[in-house]
Amino acid sequence: MTARELDAAGIQEPGLRTAYTHCRYLNARHGKTYFLATRLLPVERRAAVHALYGFARWADDIVDDLDSTATAAERAAALKALEAQLENGLRGGRATEPVIQALADTAGRYGIDHRHFADFLASMRSDLTVTGYASMNDLGGYMHGSAAVIGLQMLPVLGTVTRHEEAAGPAAALGIAFQLTNFLRDVGEDLDRGRLYLPADLIAAHGVDRARLEWSRRTGTRDPRITDALRAFAAHTRTVYRQALPGLGMLDPVARPCIRTAFVLYSGILDAIEAEEYTVLHRRAVVPRRRRAVVALDGLARALAARAPARHRTRTVVGRRPAHPGRTVITGMATPVRGEAA
């Protein structure tokens, strides 16, 4: 975390500054696309996003770190300890884990519903025992906690120009779209963990089952039926992106470039997967650096334009609650008139 970001956010206590800095490090190291997009937010809001990401990353690593030799029981114990610290931290107690210190502070500053964190940890716990899903509906229950709530956590930080309730649906859909993209990109790595997020009924419709996917992963052999199944999953994911798209125009204009950039880059992973003919079982698809740079520069231009003072008009932004959890504050912000939806 840069001193400028911490100062702009009003974070002065030394221990808390260290905690936020740790979260920023986790974001920069593990969430390259997300970190790049976060750089487009107004400087005073970045610390909160790093805290939300840091907590999610920490919990996810407890469950999924392939380099760890921890047993399932040890992972469950670590997750339970994290949950206990979270509950204590959110109640105002002293947490020793930096990600919890930063998260509790962010939740208080922005009035984020604590249930979102509990739902997230519930999905993380299920990853310790659930290794597959029979249908997209079953997968949806898991994704509420693992993905939809991430979008809902972000809304108070980003701010909206509509009622929070109106923006919540698209925000949840965007979190789900990002995770579906990750599921498709990481299907091979997830199989290595003994887990499959592609619903059994979807792949069965194309003559594919888990054993065939594992065979393809193990042997490096391609199968047109697998390609068709992966293509169908990608098509479903694009549908969810379309459901999320209207939400971009509901955000505070100064936050839109950040989320728009993440939207374009993450959906670009689907383009890369398609361009590589759905070989995700054998190699990880990435958005080319040149494409990332072009999108980032476009996002920067949009961010600078959105922050330029509007001399004649203002727009009402709803949902940012910097100091009073549980109370909605409506803030008038000077913004450009030409805010775009996508």
3D structure, described in words:
The chain has a two-stranded antiparallel sheet. The model is unreliable at 310-316 and 319-342 (pLDDT under 50). The protein has helices at 3-8, 14-30, 32-38, 46-64, 72-90, 98-110, 115-126, 136-158, 164-185, 187-192, 200-204, 210-219, 224-244, 256-275, 289-307, and strands at 315-318, 330-333. Helix 3 packs antiparallel against helix 14 (256-275). With 342 residues, it is mainly α. Helices cover 64% and strands 2% of the residues. The radius of gyration is 20 Å and the shape is globular. It contains 15 helices and two strands.
How are the SSEs ordered, and which strands pair?
Elements: H1 3-8, H2 14-30, H3 32-38, H4 46-64, H5 72-90, H6 98-110, H7 115-126, H8 136-158, H9 164-185, H10 187-192, H11 200-204, H12 210-219, H13 224-244, H14 256-275, H15 289-307, E1 315-318, E2 330-333
Antiparallel strand pairs: 1-2
Helix pairs in contact: 2-3, 2-4, 2-6, 3-14, 4-6, 4-7, 5-6, 7-8, 8-9, 9-13, 9-14, 13-14, 14-15
Strand line-up in the sheet with most strands: 1-2
What is the β-strand count?
A: 2
Largest sheet: 2 strands, antiparallel
Question: How large is the share of residues in beta strands?
Answer: under 5%
Radius of gyration, taken over Cα atoms and rounded to an integer in Å: 20 Å
Order of helices and strands: HHHHHHHHHHHHHHHEE
Shape call? globular
What are the defining features of this structure?
mainly alpha; 15 helices; globular; disordered C terminus; two-stranded antiparallel ribbon; 342 residues
Short description:
With 342 residues, the chain is mainly α. It has helices at 3-8, 14-30, 32-38, 46-64, 72-90, 98-110, 115-126, 136-158, 164-185, 187-192, 200-204, 210-219, 224-244, 256-275, 289-307; strands at residues 315-318, 330-333. It has a two-stranded antiparallel ribbon.
